[in-house]
Amino acid sequence: MDKSYTFMHKSLAKGKGCLNCHDPHFSNRLGFLLKKDAPALCLECHNTDKPFFKKKHMNYAVADSNCISCHNPHGSDMKGILYAAAHKPVSEKKCAECHAGPQSKTPLKVKKQGNELCRQCHKDMMDKTFSKNRVHWPLVDNVGCLNCHGPHATKQKKLLKGPVANVCGTCHSDTIELQKLSIDNPKNDKLCEPVKSGNCVICHSPHASDNILLMSKPSSLELCGECHKWQTHSTHPIGEKAIDKRNKNLTVDCLSCHKSCGTGNNPGMMHFASTYEMCIQCHLDRRR
């Protein structure tokens, strides 16, 4: 466990240490060998009725809340052992910006639903997003931004609920599975950096884009060209004047031969298992 935190959870330094919260042999809770789920586990030590506790939580009744939606159970460099990425209203104890007040009939109820709540502070970003031709669908349902972001605090930057590939994989599991297969294949020694790092947002705009597939550039030639000098890659015709023989409505670009998010067992991120199989898709006279 990382011991570099400025603020450590007190339970780690007393009694049974890790075993205060974890069972070393068996648990059916979330895969973390926890003795109980939060908040029941937390309430064994933290008394929510104490004035000090209530003051720290702005007098909100949080006994039934999920403590680890805000706090890192082991430690943090943030006071109150908040996760490293804390939403500004949380770190500044301004819960009422998003929630009904603690004395209301519905304390903790959010004031608005979906992205309308986030628009209160992120208006410029939201206006820019919805001005694009293509908007990522999670933004327009009743959950909105919270499909991908945590409202309080998270381990990841930008309040993401998890690593980029995990968040994207919630909906795009088939693509992420191909990505994993490509990484695990020892023959794939020429993977694109976004595939190796699992960072989908290097190539795709996570919120909205004017381009197909929410790409951050209008064409694959421009997008791939940021890392790959495709102009010197091959003498094969490529670009606007190179018509794809398989579909005369398309021109030949990087994605004509390569699959950008990984291809499982195929080398070079190609659509087919060998260059021969790839090439004869267009060059029918070379079949043998």
Task: From the structure above, extract its key features.
mainly alpha, 288 residues, two-stranded antiparallel ribbon
State the helix count: 10
The side-by-side strand order for the widest beta sheet comes to 1-2
The total beta strand count reads 6
Q: Supply the helix-strand structural class.
A: mainly alpha
Fraction of helical residues? 10-25%
Residues in β-strands, percent: under 5%
Topology as a string of helices (H) and strands (E): EHEEHHHEEHHHEHHH
Mean pLDDT: 89
- Poorly predicted runs: none
Question: What does this protein structure show overall?
Answer:
- This protein is mainly alpha-helical.
- The protein has two domains: 82 residues, no CATH class; 121 residues, no CATH class.
- Helix content is 20%, strand content 4%.
- It is built from ten helices and six strands.
- It is elongated, with a radius of gyration of 25 Å.
- The mean pLDDT is 89.
Topology:
Elements: E1 7-8, H1 51-56, E2 75-76, E3 85-86, H2 88-91, H3 115-119, H4 123-129, E4 134-135, E5 153-154, H5 164-169, H6 173-184, H7 193-197, E6 208-209, H8 220-224, H9 254-257, H10 275-279
Antiparallel strand pairs: 1-2, 3-5, 4-6
